[in-house]
Structures are given as structure tokens and as C-alpha cells.
Amino acid sequence: MLPSHTNFPDEMPNPNINGCRATREILDRIGDKWSLYIIASLAKGTMRFNELRQQGIDGISQRMLTLTLRGLERDGLVSRTMYPTIPPRVDYELTELGQTLLVPVMALVSWADNNQFAIKEAHERFDEKSDTD
Q: How far apart are CA 66 and CA 60, in angstroms?
């Protein structure tokens, strides 16, 4: 039984059923190193590949950007539009489904921002305690 001060439902889902595995796969996708950066960058609007690489996501390699965009496209979170120009032009944007992810993502970003110093202090207390053990 969960403590009464939480807002969780009375019954948590069984982690061994297919729905939980599917949820884990989705959370693994959006929780990887680069997906949230891409989603946040595309929240500003449609971007070309090089715009994402140069302006939106510092430090990502071309290969990792390509792989992450493909994964997000496969999940239906990002759409890719290719224009038959020379050189080819490819635009990326959030789908309607991807747009719905912005609210919880921004809530998580806000929580992390609001709690970064408390977490840093907890790290320091833990590390000091570990050093004395």
C-alpha cells in the first residue's frame, strides 16, 4: 500500500504486463540523451537538419541526430518532409502527438530546474557521508 500523502492511484500497474513494457519503451525513447533536446528545439517550429544540429542541439553528432530523429519519427512524434530540390531539403517538425508531449516534458524540465540546487546539496551530503564510512 502506498503512503496516503501521495497522489498515486490505489493500484499501480503490474510491471510484467505488455502495457508496462510498452510504456518503458516509450519512456526509454524520450528519456534518452538527445530526444528531449530535439523535442524542445522543434517546439519552436519546423527546422531543417542542420538548424537542429547547429542551433538547437550542441554536441550531438550527425549520426546520433539522424538516428534519434528516425526513432522519433517511427514513434510518431516527429514528421519528416523532403523537398525535391538540389541539394535536397528536409524539414522536421513535431506531429500533433509530439506536441502533446510538450506539457509533461516542460513540467519535468521545470521540476529539474527548480530542484537542481537541492539535488546538488543532496549529492554533496551523500558524498561526504560516503567518504567517512
A: 10
- H or E stretch covering 47: strand 47-48
SS (H, E, C) 56-110: HCCCCCHHHHHHHHHHHHHCCCEEEEEECCCCCEEEEEECHHHHHCHHHHHHHHH
According to DSSP, the residues that pair with 83 across neighbouring strands are: 89
For residue 86, with 0-12 CB atoms within 10 Å meaning exposed, 13-18 middle and 19 or more buried, which class applies?
A: exposed
Reported as a single tens digit per residue, the pLDDT across 74-89 is: 999 999 999 999 988 9
At a CB cut-off of 8 Å and minimum separation 6, what does 100 contact? none
Q: How far is CA 51 from the centre of its chain?
A: 19
Neighbours of 81 (CB within 10 A): 10
Q: What is the pTM of this model?
A: 0.74
Consecutive H or E run containing 48: strand 47-48
How far apart are alpha carbons 85 and 126 in whole angstroms?
A: 57
